[in-house]
Amino acid sequence: xxxxxxxxxxxxxxxxxxxxxxxxxxxxxxxxxxxxxxxxxxxxxxxxxxxxxxxxxxxxxxxxxxxxxxxxxxxxxxxxxxxxxxxxxxxxxxxxxxxxxxxxxxxxxxxxxxxxxxxxxxxxxxxxxxxxxxxxxxxxxxxxxxxxxxxxxxxxxxxxxxxxxxxxxxxxxxxxxxxxxxxxxxxxxxxxxxxxxxxxxxxxxxxxxxxxxxxxxxxxxxxxxxxxxxxxxxxxxxxxxxxxxxxxxxxxxxxxxxxxxxxxxxxxxxxxxxxxxxxxxxxxxxxxxxxxxxxxxxxxxxxxxxxxxxxxxxxxxxxxxxxxxxxxxxxxxxxxxxxxxxxxxxxxxxxxxxxxxxxxxxxxxxxxxxxxxxxxxxxxx
Length: 381
Ligand SMILES: *Cc1c(COP(=O)(O)O)cnc(C)c1O
Description:
The chain has helices spanning 29-42, 53-57, 61-70, 81-87, 108-113, 123-136, 157-165, 191-205, 217-220, 352-358, 363-368, and strands at residues 5-6, 12-14, 23-28, 47-48, 50-51, 75-78, 96-99, 117-120, 140-145, 173-179, 212-213, 230-231, 254-266, 271-272, 278-279, 284-289, 306-309, 312-315, 325-328, 342-346, 375-379. It is an alpha/beta fold.
């Protein structure tokens, strides 16, 4: 990888001549490890797993998962079997991969042969897995998800009752945990949290005893009653705040530095960008940065939020384009900002959560959308 000039805080101070990308994404694996250790300490008594679906929320699952494994993580959650198969070679013996989206008909053999553990989401999946265990003549591991209110994945109450009445349907299945998922854990005061907790306790009791797996990042911060035996944080590992409205207890993981590709002076009355959504009411300095919506810098960032040059905020003006965006650089002295100057898009001046708020979305969408065109640098391993 190209080397680049950086300040002590990791900021890019000069664009490397040999690098031709529009932005640098820096991912701090040490911060992810520290966040894992902090969450694991918080849930003492429960095992702390990690959700690494969607390529570890866009940060690179094959780089992130080994760091988590070295920190002691043994439960890795992905969304799809394909993600699990890709991750398998990166994990040490003894680490297990769980597929949250369930067991698709026809995938039983590949799942079992690769030692990947499905989260069974309905009675039919339970029966498929049980039948596959019988055909192999050995027990197969699985988690079973029960719905507690979200109506997304997991056995509804009627199916839980049918399973409870006829536990032979689970024959040959080694039930590693009963799983459910919180819909409103980012709103600690929402009544759904206690309702889902009560439903989880009551519905789990209908089934043969097995460990409980309930809390995501937000759920961990709702308190010990939500922890059960295994927790499965994602967002908090990657630095998003699990406690909206309070100071973020997690270390920040990502920084994004964009490259300025042109600077110009405009006059009062001049327009900026597609559809002329911004018009100058005074002479202004406009800087164009090489990041656009094709890089995950969302179009809803048009005319809102800012980039930073040092400590100076450069507000976005005009529409975000596919490959570039325009900044009001009037506050920067003439000549200070030139072609190739790096500006901070995510970093010490603005967190992923703050960028998301400016673009009217959540940090999850910003992280998972981070562009494939960026140069990537991993630090802190
Ligand atoms: C994505 C996901 C998680 C992780 O949630 P975070 O809010 O990122 O911690 C946990 N469980 C399930 C079922 C999920 O889909």
